[in-house]
From TrEMBL:
SUPFAM superfamilies to which the protein is assigned, alphabetical: Homeodomain-like (SSF46689)
DNA-binding region range list: 38-57
Keyword annotations from UniProtKB, A to Z: DNA-binding
Keyword DNA-binding tagged: yes
Record flagged with keyword Nucleus: no
Domain HTH tetR-type, chain residue ranges per copy: 15-75
Matching InterPro entries: Homeodomain-like_sf, HTH-type_TetR-like_transc_reg, HTH_TetR, TetR_C_34
Name of the protein in question: TetR family transcriptional regulator
Length: 220
């Protein structure tokens, strides 16, 4: 690593440093889970003092909120491609859920976004994340509405938001920590409580899609 990069005096060097920090935080989260990564751990992984790290990201939450924004980008691209290849209206549920299941880090970030990652961040970081989230959900909802003409645009938006919400809620439960995984393996009765993410999420989305049109206000 060059001295110029270490000092990060130029804009391109600062961008390189930000990308290095994000890459280190991503790797740590994939290995240990988002909740177990500290700001000090990210700083050590990238070779910076915590005080120097603050020049690029104010808090650990800000780092992971930026990673969540990037993950929304990747999910949007993947799910739009999958919906475009859908062979039937019901394939939309597979497209939404399978692309989430393929992204464990995204699901982990979603599970922490409203409870921790949206706390202790700057207004600018929160705004960037929320605007990107809204944009991604709107684009995916438009694709869902085209593939599912039985749903209005607003109903499609609710369906897509629910898919992300199910990922935040169900994915951690379906992928338990080691202690719980050991318990499930040892006790079949308790193991029945461990849900399967994809089948459960798809069933819930199907039920929601079937129910939403029944809630439309009556026409005059």
């Amino acid at each position: 690593m060059s001295k110029e990069f270490l000092r990060a005096r130029r804009p391109e060097h600062k961008q390189q440093r930000r990308e290095a920090i994000l890459a280190a935080a991503r790797e740590l989260a994939l290995t240990s889970g988002v909740r177990n990564v500290s700001l000090g751990g990210v700083a050590a992984a990238v070779g910076l003092a915590k005080s120097n790290l603050a020049r690029y990201f104010t808090t650990r939450e800000e780092i992971y909120l930026e990673l969540a924004r990037q993950e929304f980008d990747a999910w949007e691209t993947a799910v739009l491609a999958r919906i475009g290849e859908a062979s039937s209206p019901d394939a939309v549920f597979d497209a939404l859920v399978d692309t989430l299941e393929e992204r464990p880090l995204f699901c982990d970030l979603l599970s922490h976004s409203s409870t921790t990652l949206e706390h202790n961040v700057t207004v600018e970081a929160a705004r960037a994340f929320k605007l990107r989230t809204a944009e991604a959900l709107a684009k995916v909802a438009s694709a869902v509405a085209r593939a599912r003409p039985d749903l209005t645009e607003e109903e499609a938006r609710e369906l897509v938001a629910a898919a992300a919400g199910f990922a935040a809620l169900l994915y951690p439960a379906a992928n338990p920590p080691p202690v719980m995984a050991k318990l499930y393996a040892e006790d079949p009765v308790i193991a029945a409580l461990c849900i399967k993410f994809a089948p459960t999420a798809k069933r819930m989305l199907r039920a929601l899609a079937a129910g939403l049109p029944t809630l439309r206000p009556p026409h005059d």
